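Section 5.1 Outputs to date
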Amino acid sequence: MNITADKLSKRDILAIPVMLFAGAYLFCCLTPIFCEKMEEVSNRSAAVSENSANVQGDWYVIDTGYFTIYCDRNSDLKTIARKLGRRGLFTSGVYDPSPASSPSGKIAYRFTSLLRRAQDILDMRPNMKNLKVKIFKNRSQLYDEYYRIFGAAGEYESFYVYKNDTIYISEDTLSDNVVAHEMGHAVIDHYFSAVPPEKVRELLASYVDMHLEDDE
């Protein structure tokens, strides 16, 4: 609604300076608080970007706070982060959107989310402080690592070794399903005092993959 000047009362005219003064006062009071909060968020994001990915030899090393992820130096961290979110799990309500902006921060957040999801699906929450994930550039390197560990050929898209407490995977085969499956193996092996038979472990790990997108 438009109001012309000749229709304004004296009280309305006097109220204008008061309103302007109040607005200026609130702006001066709130601006420092707003800037301080923005600086805090910016510093937190910078810390994630700077501290979450380091270089150790042939690996990018990402410390999630729960476990450690090793990515081949020839891998593209942006590609890895994108592959982990292809099914939209992190925006569908199953997971909250990642607060991190850097690729390494997103990878750390998504792997942690998948571990928690595996624990929730299985209703098993063992103490897991030394878990590691190694992401090779391609399947050939993954197969070579399997042969190095077991002394036999094994063309698996991923695998988990309890004695090393490590999940092995390649960028070629990376997906949230594959990671969740192996997270299931890790949770299962840590939960029981004696490692269950292979068929039982595989059945439970497959259950995690099947129910990954179920409503909580």
